Amino acid sequence: MAKTETPENNVLNFIKSKKIQFIDLKFMDFPGQWQHFTVPVSQFNKDSFVDGFGFDGSSIRGWKAINESDMLIIPDASTMFLDPFIEAPTLSLICDVHEPATKEKYSRCPRNITHKATEYLKSSGIADTVFFGPEAEFFVFDDVRFDSQPNHSFYKVDSVEGRWNSGKDEGPNLAYKPRYKEGYFPVPPTDSLTDLRNEMVINLINAGIEVEAQHHEVASGGQCEIDLRFEPLIKAADQLLMFKYIVKNTAKKKGKTVTYMPKPIQGDNGSGMHVHTSLWKKGKPLFAGSGYAGLSELALYFIGGILKHASSLLAFTNPTTNSYKRLVPGFEAPVNLAYSQRNRSAAVRIPMYSASPKAKRVEFRCPDPSSNPYLAFSAMMMAGLDGIINRIDPGEPLDKDIYDMDPEELKNVPSTPGSLNEAIKALADDHEYLLKGDVFTEDVVETWINYKIDKEIKPMALQPHPYEFALYYDV
Length: 475
Prior knowledge:
The chain is built from 14 helices and 18 strands. By secondary structure, the chain is an alpha+beta fold.
C-alpha cells in the first residue's frame, strides 16, 4: 500500500531523492531576524516533526532570561525549501518555538502569533482567510562602512549607480547613473541591476515563491523591488523572510550587499513595504462591493480600523528609528492617515488596476521592510477586524492633490507619528484591539515596548549625531 502523501512524508521523500546531508532549522527572534542551527540528516526523522529539537534560547533577543533558557523548536513540514546558498545539500525548514516542558507554543515566538491570529479570524465568523501581498523595496550597494565609538561616528554607502558618483574618476566613468528620484523603470544600461534581480527571481521561484514582477525603484543608488504574489497570513510572512534571505544571499554571491533599511540615503526616496490585504470566506472575496472605489461596506470598515489604530499599528509596521526618516512629506511617503483610490500620500490606497472582485483589496502604504512580518501582518488584521466589529467609519476619502490643498484644510488630516517614540507611546495607550482572542498578549506588547525603548530609542537619544557637529561645533 502506498504511503499517504503528507507534508511530513514529502519532506522525508525529498531528503532521500535529493540526497540531503543537512537540515537547517530556521526560526524568528522577537524583533524580526531569522536565526538558525543545523543538524546532520542522520538526526532527523518523522518523529522530529513531533519531538522537535532543543536549544539554548538565552541569547535570543527579546526572549526569556537565562534561568528559563531551554527552548524547543518544531519544524513545519509545509515550509521546506532547498537552500541554494549552503555548499552541502541542505534542506531548510521554518520552525515554531515551544515550551519544552508543556509543548505549548511560546507566546513570544512571532510565528506563533500568526497561528493565533488565523484562528481568531476563523472564530470571528467574519472571514476564514486573510491574504497579504507585501512589496518590500530594498537597496543594492557595492560598499557599506559604518562605525560608532565614543569619539567618532560615521556611515558611508556607495553604489556604482549612485548619482553622487557622476563626477568620480572610475577609469572610465560610463555615466548612466539614475538621477535622484528618477530611478523608476529606466532600461539598461541606466538600470544596471536587471541581471542580478533576474537571478534573485530564479532563486525565489526555485524555493517555491511565486513572483509577479521585478523592477528598479525610484531612488538613485540601486533601489529595487521584487513583487510577490499574495498568500494567506502565515505563508505570506514565511515567504517574506525567505525573500529577504534569498535576495541578500544572491547579492552577496555577486559581491554586492542588500539592505532593507527604510532610509539609507538622505534626500532620496526610502524603501517602503506597501502591503495589499483582503478578506475571503468560503472561497469568495469580501472586499468587493458597490461603495467607494468598488469596495464593500465591510472593506470600508476594515479601512476604518486601520486608520483608527494607525498610530499604534506603526509601532509594529514601522518599528525602527530610521523608519520615521522615510515617513516625511516630499518623497511619496504615505504620511496622511486617510484613504484614497489614487492619492499615494494617503496611508491606505485602493488599487484600481482590475475590475475583478477577486482583485479588490486595500493597500496599507505605511509599513516598511524593517518590520517583523509575523507581528506586522497580525496587527494589521486585528486593527481591520476591530473596524469591522465596531463598524468604524473611515470618513471621507482624500482624493485631492495635497499640494493643491489649502494649508488650513490639510491641518484637518491626521498624520503618521513623527518618531518611533511617538508610535511606541501610541501602542502603550492603544492596544486592546490586539489582545482579542489572546492573539497578542500583555506580555508581548509590554516586551515590545520595553525592548524598543531600552535597545533603540534611548541609545539613539544619547548618541551624538555627525550632523550635530555641522550645526553646533562652533557655538
